[in-house]
Amino acid sequence: MRNLDFTPLYRSAIGFDRLFNQMEKSATNANVGYPPYNIEQQDDNHYRITMAVAGFADEQLDITQQQNKLIVRGTREANGETERQYLYQGIAERDFERKFQLADYVKVVGAEMENGLLHIDLEREIPEEQKPRKIAINGRHLLESE
């Protein structure tokens, strides 16, 4: 795996230190890849995470949002089944925990299971006071109206 050096970006990006640190951390501590997932951007403010969770029932999955972190857990309960002896086991039957770092103002708006895929819908809601606004230069805007 390639190591990315974000050092040149620190000089031209102000206030993004945390973002670059998280990117470096995720590049070095890559998840094991289970379960596989997709992240889809549907438009500027809507996203969808799709996870392949075949073999898990709705009640075995737990989705939690804590501040800017989304945590998805899958727990398989032993049903009193006897230990199986596999000649080849290509289907992972194990518990998992997958964490996603969410940007500010992103929240989970829904989740659904369909054909072994867990879809988690996310939406970014920027507060009115955080949206861009026009700034008058040297009060010129005020003098012209008088």
Summarize the structure.
With 146 residues, the protein is an alpha+beta fold. The protein is 16% helix and 34% strand.
Structure description:
Pfam families: HSP20. Belongs to the small heat shock protein (HSP20) family. Keywords: Stress response. Residues 28-140 form the SHSP domain. 16% of the residues lie in helices and 34% in strands. By secondary structure, the chain is an alpha+beta fold. It folds into 2 domains: 1-30, no CATH class; 34-145, Immunoglobulin-like (Sandwich), CATH 2.60.40.790. The strands form 2 sheets. A 4-stranded antiparallel β-sheet has the order 1-2-7-6, with no helix packed on it. The chain has a 3-stranded antiparallel β-sheet with strand order 3-4-5, with no helix packed on it. The model has no long low-confidence stretch (mean pLDDT 80).
List the helices and strands and how they pair.
Layout: H1 7-12, H2 17-28, E1 37-43, E2 46-52, E3 61-66, E4 69-74, E5 96-101, E6 106-114, E7 117-124, H3 140-145
Antiparallel strand pairs: 1-2, 2-7, 3-4, 4-5, 6-7
Major sheet size, sense and barrel closure? 4 strands, antiparallel
Q: What's the arrangement of strands in the largest beta sheet? A: 1-2-7-6
Give the strand tally: 7
How many discrete domains? Answer: 2
N-end to C-end Cα span: 64 Å
Shape: elongated
| H/I helix tally | 3
Beta-strand portion reads 25-35%
Please compute the radius of gyration using only Cα atoms: 22 Å
CATH C-level class of the largest domain is Mainly Beta
Q: What would you call the structural class?
A: alpha+beta
The CATH topology name of the largest domain reads Immunoglobulin-like
Poorly predicted ranges? none
Helix content: 10-25%
Order of helices and strands: HHEEEEEEEH
Second CATH tier, the architecture of the largest domain: Sandwich
How confident overall, as mean pLDDT? Answer: 80
